[in-house]
Amino acid sequence: MSVLPGSIIVSDWHRFPDSREFFSRILHKKRRRKFGLLEAPMMPPHMNVDTVRYKVFISGKTGVGKSALAARLAGLDFPKMHYETTGIETTVTFWPVKLKDSNRVLFFRFEFWDCGESAMRRFDHMLPSCKEQVDAMLFLFSFTDRGSFEDLSNQISRITESSDRVVKLVVGTKFDLFMHTDVTESDVTRFKEVWGLPVFRVGGDVSAGLGEVAPLLNALAENLWYQDCIAASSVSIATAGLTQTDKEIIV
Ligand SMILES: Nc1nc2c(ncn2[C@@H]2O[C@H](COP(=O)(O)OP(=O)(O)OP(=O)(O)O)[C@@H](O)[C@H]2O)c(=O)[nH]1
Ligand SMILES: [Mg+2]
């Protein structure tokens, strides 16, 4: 279950002139600004924006591109070589979003948790740490590795429990190597039908372009915000059932 893109937030807001002063807070010389764990964009006092924080776990087998995706979403370059992540690494990304009905602007602070697969196998406490109070999970497969795609269902059921209140999105990496793809469009379509989860495609060099990461970051923001709104109004929803508006924005 996920939210129809653009039903809660303005899609492609980074293309609109009124977003410029907000996106300039996460840019430096046309590149993305790097934020440490304790850092945040500098806001002038007249810009009255709230920041909402979320923990996002990136899951997938070794070499699929978890660390590369965390870097890509933060606008940072990643190595061409594969270096196994030896433990848990966290990457902070800020992303401004405009809510459609109120025109309110929110800064989403995503903390991406990425754990090397071999460290995950070796140390039992890694997976519980990554899952603790997690708000969203990105399940990765690589377009150049059919095994990683076929393992998706296992991966999702192994890591999540049906009771989990967690946003789930699927990301296919190395889409730039489509000449060597092992996963067809119809495979992806079938998966989406069975699981009802959106699938995003990423690949290629990290450029300064916001457009490349916007669809995935916006989808994360929109689904997380919706999840929070549902949780906040869960008492009334439990008694009255989902409202018509809720039904319309869920796909
Ligand atoms: N062409 C291309 N290469 C990619 C992409 N994403 C990752 N890679 C490459 O794939 C290799 C593995 O990526 P990593 O991000 O280190 O893999 P990982 O999932 O973090 O692996 P572990 O830390 O061992 O679990 C690296 O050589 C990356 O440069 C992509 O979208 N396109
Ligand atoms: Mg890694």
UniProtKB/TrEMBL annotation:
Report the subcellular localization: Cytoplasm, Cytoskeleton, Cilium basal body
Q: Which domain of life is it from?
A: Eukaryota
GO terms under biological process: cell projection organization; exocytosis; protein transport
> Which InterPro entries does this entry report, sorted A to Z?
P-loop_NTPase (IPR027417), RSG1 (IPR039677), Small_GTPase (IPR001806)
- Keyword Transport among UniProt keywords: yes
Which GO molecular function annotations are given, in alphabetical order? GTP binding; GTPase activity
Zinc-finger found in the keyword field: no
- Keyword annotations: Cell projection, Cilium, Cilium biogenesis/degradation, Cytoplasm, Cytoskeleton, Exocytosis, GTP-binding, Nucleotide-binding, Protein transport, Transport
Q: Which SUPFAM superfamilies match?
A: P-loop containing nucleoside triphosphate hydrolases
| Similarity section | Belongs to the small GTPase superfamily. Rab family.
Q: Which PANTHER family match?
A: CILIOGENESIS AND PLANAR POLARITY EFFECTOR 2 (PTHR14983)
Q: What name does UniProt use for this protein?
A: Ciliogenesis and planar polarity effector 2
Give the species this sequence originates from.
Triplophysa rosa (Cave loach)
